[in-house]
Structure prediction request, 573 residues.
Amino acid sequence: MNIEDVKIYEYDVVVVGAGLAGLAAAKELTEAGKKTAVITKLHPLRSHSGAAQGGINAALSEDDSVELHMFDTVKGSDYLGDQDVIEMMCKGAPETIRWAERMGAAFSREKDGTIAIRPFGGQSKPRACYASDRTGLTMLQTIYEQADRAGIEVFDEWYAADLLYEDGKVKGIAAFNLRDSQPAIFNAKATIFATGGYGRAYKVNSNAHANTGDALSMVARKGLPLEDMEFVQFHPSGLGGSGILISEAARGEGAWLFNSEGERFMKKYAPNVQELASRDVVSRAIMQEVREGRGVGPNDDAVFMDLSHIDEEIILKKLPELRELAITFQGLDMLKEPILISATAHYSMGGIPVTKRCQVRKSPTELVEGFYAAGECSCISVHGANRLGANSLLEALFFGREAGKAILEDLDSLSFSKAKTKDAQTMIDEYNWVKNNNGDERVPALREELQNSMSNDAGVFRTEESLSRQIEKLGELYKRYKNIRIDDKSSTFNTDLQEAIELGHMLDFSLFIVKGGLERRESRGAHYRDDHTERDDANFLKHTFATLRDGYTIEQEYAEVVLGHFKPEARTY
Ligand SMILES: Cc1cc2nc3c(=O)[nH]c(=O)nc-3n(C[C@H](O)[C@H](O)[C@H](O)COP(=O)(O)OP(=O)(O)OC[C@H]3O[C@@H](n4cnc5c(N)ncnc54)[C@H](O)[C@@H]3O)c2cc1C
Prediction:
């Protein structure tokens, strides 16, 4: 890749990511007449948003309320969620559903024609609106169609590789075309990152292969902070072995969990709501049963999920994809027999810190000019230490739109700083280094070591010892990464090269997860320390802001949580 070949494209706004968050933002901006480019390494319809099965929350039923939705979200977050943004999102939820519906999203219906809702974990009332068990796909197809109709300009199969950041301001990104390695700069007044989650750092995970946290690393390499990275959600029901998701909709529709002794063990851990406790609680319960020798399956590392007592028609109508998944990957038919499940890395509560207007923060008190983020890659902190099921599609759609609106307000006051081809140098150097480096380490092998060690030592249960060991391990993997070699030297769809760059990104953000977890000597939400089992509000009711220095050292500071109406109290289910 050569600097002479760099093309420079000029836009008002460049959006990186074409999942629900990116498309929602791009649609707002394009409809308002702003010249907007959407850069995505996948075709938009392959974004992970399309894999969401279970639902999207809104307090729609008569016995539910925005206040209850807020309370459940705050409690679910283990009081780390910022209550001002939680209020915004929960208030905006019913309108977000109606907006999606008006665009053509075909929600499932009750007999009286109203939008159907189902119960989800950690919720006092059923409020997950759904489209069978393909909710994300329905949303993504709908919004993509409508954004396309509005005329969004998509650069798909383009890989965003570097953030153009200088003097407190972002002027766009450097990217290359995966088809032919054409390098380019997308130069804009405003840039939005909407690049989704990063569960691929774990061995057993529910995430798409593309969820490698590229944007987090691009931000971190500029010395900008990441927030609350220690909070990684493990979903209770991944298919045993593969981690492929069996949506919470299964428990919502009434599934039971059993250990090897035939005991419905959730009675011990969450006596009131049992299987419908929040995700962190159920995941830990499953892993505790396994740790104490009551696991099932070929390696005794799973538990049974039983749906055979549920009406056949409900399963066939409301959970058809889940049934297919279990038949395909386990040969087990949930109509007749229990399936095997265990915890799977699923969602990232932490990310790029943003204000309630989705502006990226340079520190707890300062902003980066011209830079915004929304959706799973961001940390606006509506989920705090643990996200409730069906709140994430909502976050992506609601704050994706909010990011678009905020930019429309800001655009006139943002300056355009013209990019030069040399601004692509960092990307070109990285690309050429990966292609030509001639060491003896293999990317798939290093990635597997990363995933195994993250699962073992920075997973559902953590200790000072395990996290310190993982810091050492990451140091070793960084060194070995410098010594990689790839075989494919072509410039056309070079997935070897792409995966090598992505592994570099995964190493970076993993370091934040581990360091954050090591310093947070308490248990809160998804972060559980065997050696500090209690929540410690006196010392840790605060957000972590962490910054990468010298390539491998992490510096941390803390920021206040926005509290409000709901005072921290013990969290039981
Ligand atoms: C299996 C599964 C089921 C889920 N079920 C639910 C559910 O029922 N309810 C719920 O609320 N939430 C659910 N979630 C979570 C929810 O789907 C996601 O958090 C949400 O869809 C994220 O949307 P997003 O727009 O932020 O990112 P995504 O939809 O992940 O999109 C990310 C985009 O960024 C692009 N991108 C990334 N890196 C680069 C790069 N370097 N260069 C160019 N482009 C890049 C990708 O191409 C993609 O277009 C589920 C998640 C999973 C994994």
Observations:
- Residues 236-343 form a domain with the Flavocytochrome C3; Chain A, domain 1 fold (CATH 3.90.700.10).
